[in-house]
Amino acid sequence: MNLIKPCTLALFLAASGLTAAEEPAYAPQAPLAALNLRDGDAIVFLGDSITHQCLYTQYVEDYFYTRFPKMRLRLHNAGVGGSRAWDAHFRFDRDVAAYHPKYVTVLLGMNDGRYAEYIDDVFTSYSGEMNRLLERIDECGATAILMTPTMFDARAKRMQPPGGFMGPKAVTFYNSTLAYYGAWLRDTACERGLGFVDLWGPLNEITINERRKDPRFTMIKDSVHPDPAGQVVMAAAMIEDLGLPEIVSHMSFNLKDGAWSSVSESADVSELKGSADRLSFTSLEHSLPWVLPEEAQLGVELTDLSQRFGRETLVVSGLPAGTYSVQIDGEEVTRATEQELHDGLPLHALTTTPQHQQAAQVAALNKQRNEGPVKTLRNEWGDFQSWKYLQAQVEKNPNDEAEKRRLADVEKKMPGMEERVKAAEAAAMAIEDEIFTINQPRPHRFAIQPASE
């Protein structure tokens, strides 16, 4: 066995300016456990075409708008189709740092792996650019939240017509390549004390569970871009992994010795009245249910979204046996037995409540915001990224006339970009202002009485 001689070690330490006692010890950091949000904080969603789709970001925005209606967060989509860690640097100052974010979620890697089996040089380039990106996020005073690349659905790819740029080996192994990238991101987040969200795991887990019932099931029809259901899975993973609140409200009422009492969480209960077989009260809940657009409902079912992340529960104990009418603001929203009320009525499962309908209005307005000015803004940055990419290509291949023509075409789109960006930002903010006029919780009068009346 070869041992380092003491004199050799002493010379090394002397050269490094350290003594054996001064050698720095490894000090592990804790990864981010939960977001610490305050009014006015900004969150930037940095990513590629999956972010450019304006779906998972929209659904997470819906959560923030309804769960924190008194907190005005600034939420900015910074996704561009085709983006890689390398490309993100070109637009970082204006598209990320300019928003003074507190947190930056990073969803990059799908394009970085080059749609191939694992290649060490490719990964080395990706990890280097990602580390450089993390340094820039840190320098602008933000905390990065690393998100794994999403699932590559090889089965969906095989169900497509033959052809394309991916060979059989790449199709077989690319999802595993992305898993490797995601594992490195997890370890990096842990080492740097950053946030981490696992998107790859839930997408794959739900897919394999559903394929036990339907072998053709997919949430990623083109094999790369999750559809609305898949994007709900992504949004749910973010809410879970970022330690955000999971309940809307809990209201509990108990009849004992002829008197009603109440205990509530995230709701203010007042004007409680009742008798042996009925009660009424006014409730001002602190937030609204998390409601998503109609096209996202399959994802809501697959994730059990309302139960897991939007519980709104009414418990009534002590009523005589029978069926009861549950009314809100004079309208019946459901009927329930005394046992169902005792066990806890899931208001979040009812689309008939005024709270649900109010939240649905928020979701509809935010969908308009994303399909309009937010998508316009992302397309502007898509042109910018193409311009920067083509500049680099022409610089490397100055005699490539085709690339020169493409560059000239894109350059025509650049004049006036900053003005168009500002106009899109202003239009998005105007719709958000409207959202904050309709997302404020309102007091509602509840009544529970025998259904026969």
Automatic annotation (TrEMBL):
**Which residues, by range, are in coiled-coil regions?**
407-434
Q: What are the GO MF terms of this UniProt record?
A: phosphatidylcholine lysophospholipase activity
Q: Which InterPro entries match?
A: Ester_Hydrolysis_Enzymes, SGNH_hydro, SGNH_hydro_sf
Q: Name the Pfam families on file.
A: Lipase_GDSL_2
Signal peptide range equals 1-20
Where do the SGNH hydrolase-type esterase domain residues begin and end?
A: 45-231
Which keywords, in A-to-Z order, does the entry hold?
Coiled coil, Hydrolase, Signal
Recorded hits in PANTHER family, A to Z, give: SGNH HYDROLASE-TYPE ESTERASE DOMAIN-CONTAINING PROTEIN, THIOESTERASE 1/PROTEASE 1/LYSOPHOSPHOLIPASE L1
The molecule here is called: GDSL-like Lipase/Acylhydrolase
Tell me which species this is from.
Posidoniimonas corsicana
